[in-house]
């Protein structure tokens, strides 16, 4: 029987504000048939979003100029997690987090777009997977229910209290994932709880005039401090700023207590 192939893997973990280097070895032959336990846990909660067309944005008069006009966009199939990344998941990879609202079942919070992507890089190194942030189009398609879209104002309902922790009921804090009703695809907290980073840079021109098939406004994060789009509102947003089409933004290195992320991967 041939000897197993060993692969040296180096990664870092957070310890407070310090970054600690860790080196380990994994048996790649074994990994090929035995997914990492963290990956197994993640995949249990992944939902297939069948590709399709939808109306992205809004023509309503209350929509901002960055959210209009509505236009027909198509996306390919992809997988998205039912839940926002929890502190338990984040800390199982990074060792710790700087979450302001400290609870293993609460979404990881108080992190930047750069830190969210760094976590995903470390997760992929550890598991051999290819998780990523959603594109802005993928996020909005999923929030609206994909091909099961019922035309709700918020993700899963016309009553925000049914599906979201927002300024009117959250008591100014993040809550454990999955406590509200899911949307048509079985996704929780797409509206409210914590804002969710996406791949795209925040660009009004691209949003209005970019490609209609799989639009993706990813930009090199090493160039300047480009603003990144944030979707879904949060526990700090009012009801009238939490509709499915709403967009917000943050510089890629800003850290705020109401920001988090959700995992996506391509459909195979």
UniProtKB/TrEMBL annotation:
Sulfatase-modifying factor enzyme-like domain location: 44-265
Pfam families membership: FGE-sulfatase (PF03781)
Name of the protein this chain belongs to: Formylglycine-generating enzyme family protein
């Amino acid at each position: 029987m041939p000897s197993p192939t060993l692969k040296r893997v180096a990664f870092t973990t957070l310890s407070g504000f310090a970054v600690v280097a860790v080196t380990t070895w994994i048996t790649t032959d074994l990994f090929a048939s035995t997914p990492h336990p963290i990956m197994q846990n993640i995949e249990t909660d992944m939902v297939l979003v069948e590709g399709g067309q939808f109306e992205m944005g809004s023509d309503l008069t209350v929509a901002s100029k960055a959210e209009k006009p509505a236009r027909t966009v198509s996306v390919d199939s992809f997988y998205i997690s039912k839940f926002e990344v929890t502190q338990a998941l984040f800390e199982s990879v990074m060792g710790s987090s700087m979450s302001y609202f400290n609870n293993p079942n609460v979404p990881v919070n108080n992190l930047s777009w750069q830190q969210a992507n760094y976590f995903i890089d470390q997760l992929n190194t550890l598991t051999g997977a290819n998780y990523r942030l959603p594109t802005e189009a993928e996020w909005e398609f999923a929030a609206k229910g994909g091909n099961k879209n019922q035309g709700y104002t918020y993700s899963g309902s016309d009553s925000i209290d049914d599906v979201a922790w927002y300024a009117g009921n959250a008591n100014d804090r993040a809550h454990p994932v999955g406590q509200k009703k899911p949307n048509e695809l079985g996704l929780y907290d797409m509206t409210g709880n914590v804002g969710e980073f996406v791949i795209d840079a925040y660009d009004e021109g691209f949003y209005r005039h970019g490609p209609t098939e799989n639009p993706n406004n990813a930009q090199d994060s090493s160039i300047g401090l480009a603003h990144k789009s944030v979707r879904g509102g949060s526990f700090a947003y009012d009801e009238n700023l939490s509709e499915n089409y709403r967009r917000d933004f943050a510089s890629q290195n800003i850290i705020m207590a109401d920001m988090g992320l959700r995992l996506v991967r391509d459909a195979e």
